[in-house]
Amino acid sequence: MEYTVQKLARIAGISARALRYYDEIGILKPARINSSGYRIYGKAEVDRLQQILFYKELGVGLDRVREIIDSPSFDSLVALYEHRRQLLDQKIRLEQLINSVDQTITEKEGGRAMRDSEKFAGFKQRLIEENEKKYGQEIREKYGYETVDQSNQALKGMSQEQYKQFEELGQQVLSTLEEAIATGDPGGELAQKTAGLHARWLTISWGNYSREAHAGLAQMYVDDPRFTAFYDEKVQAGATTFLRDAVLIYTGTRFCS
Amino acid sequence: MEYTVQKLARIAGISARALRYYDEIGILKPARINSSGYRIYGKAEVDRLQQILFYKELGVGLDRVREIIDSPSFDSLVALYEHRRQLLDQKIRLEQLINSVDQTITEKEGGRAMRDSEKFAGFKQRLIEENEKKYGQEIREKYGYETVDQSNQALKGMSQEQYKQFEELGQQVLSTLEEAIATGDPGGELAQKTAGLHARWLTISWGNYSREAHAGLAQMYVDDPRFTAFYDEKVQAGATTFLRDAVLIYTGTRFCS
DNA sequence: TATTGACCTTAACGCTGCGTAAAGGTTTAT
DNA sequence: ATAAACCTTTACGCAGCGTTAAGGTCAATA
To answer: Among B65, B54, B50, which residue's Cα sits nearest to residue B3?
Structure first.
């Protein structure tokens, strides 16, 4: 039941260097050092390592891991809740990045070089988002969710010109969808372009865009016979399912049905 | 139209140190160095910096940014697609982490200490996920999405004992939902617990869990009169909307309706 | 028994994208 | 003239190890 670094490293699936590092920072010290200076780990250390790796697996930093496993269970729960919040924040940031990349891609695909004004608009957008991140929650806590919802609603009844784009896009979605189905590959370039167009269509109709909602809607299309009828008749049989698959891939949603 | 480091830094919203670093790694060199050794930037450098910051904003690393802006537009599109994929991978990883944290939280809240077998099961789970990450796409490309779907389907018709849990959970969801509504706060502890129970309920019924799908379903509940009727009658009026709000917060979904 | 190969040790640099001194020169305003 | 506000280079620090480098230890084999 005694292990040297490499043996423990192998059963734990990490590197020997990592173990030496854990020793160095004091988060996991060997049970004893043998006469040759070798690190010898025992059962207790295996258990502790298991715990360390478990929390690390959750993406917790080593410092925080130490706090968690060296403190009573009450604290660990709080720490986990806090960690969860941080993960969610990261996720939101990632989603914003993905949306931005999507926008850039569609703009570039349109062959239209970005003009300076748009670049600066991007900067403004960034500022707004930063603001949202910093104060959004505070605002929500102060005024409740309904206010935010309402201000989102306010974005809806905006311009008149968008309606034309909206209609056009709707047609474009249908036509590219038809082409895409011919390729048979919902992960293919055409299908992804279709999903992108569909995303823009949604963006206009909802005033904003979230990939969850996009994926959810695509699934709803399939589940709701009215939508299924619409796409399957406007394009061809199976079109709705194909669109859903394309959208699920586009939004990065894992398989969930 | 000529700027020193700090002036440029101010209009670009970054630090002077960053500019010096960009010079150091050669991604943005000043137009010239004046007689006192000061870095002097011109219009061209402003434009280039704008580009750099734009891509950096998308989360692209500086090395890749350099590749993108120093190559024709074709390459940049490919790079963007690739970058998008990486972001999606990161996002999926984050979601897995969040799910794990959720599980740990519910387990800890249940007051039940994790047994060693479960710890190791977690490790196995990790291995499976790693495998999925490494080879999942390859498999999908080889055998198409349907195979993966089918193997997912296979997970569904599993145990018989789960059905009991499933029924029980359904009742629990309803009862905690009722308590939660009494508090009036969809972000509160009880409401989040309800959402957690609902998540577990889904996990069992679907064989796996994705937070997008969860959020999407919650929204669907509100949109679909059959579901609305179910929850609003089983619990009380407005229960469906409350559950949706709780789930949206639980899943970290931004407001999208 | 000598040698090989598989272990073990410490020490120290490297990676990203800068933040943050430290130690000193330049320009501008008062 | 002097202070304030710039500018410069140099270099350590951050997380979590990976990766040599330079050298001891242990078990088995020729």
So the answer is: B50
pLDDT tens for residues A199-240? 777 666 665 566 676 777 787 777 767 667 777 777 888 888
**Nucleotides of chain C touched by protein CB (<7 A):** 7-10, 16-20, 25-27
Write out the residue range of the structural domain in which residue A28 sits. Answer: 5-69
| Contact criterion met (CB < 8 Å) for A145 and B208 | no
Which nucleotide's C1' sits nearest to the alpha carbon of B36? C26
Residue A217's CATH number: 1.10.490.50
Alpha helices per DSSP H over A70-115: 73-109
Length of chain B: 257
Per the CB < 8 A criterion, the answer to whether B193 and B249 are in contact is: no
A233: Cβ contacts below 8 Å, ≥ 6 apart: none
Give the number of domains in chain B.
3
User: What are the DSSP E strand ranges found in chain A?
Assistant: 32-33, 39-40
Q: Residues A223, B217: contact at Cβ < 8 Å?
A: no
First to last CA, chain A: 45
Beta strand B32-33 with A39-40 is unpaired
Indicate the helix (H) or strand (E) that contains A46: helix A43-57
Tell if the CB–CB gap between B216 and A216 is shorter than 8 Å. Answer: yes
- The encoded tokens of residue B208 equal 């796996």
Q: pTM (2 decimals)?
A: 0.45
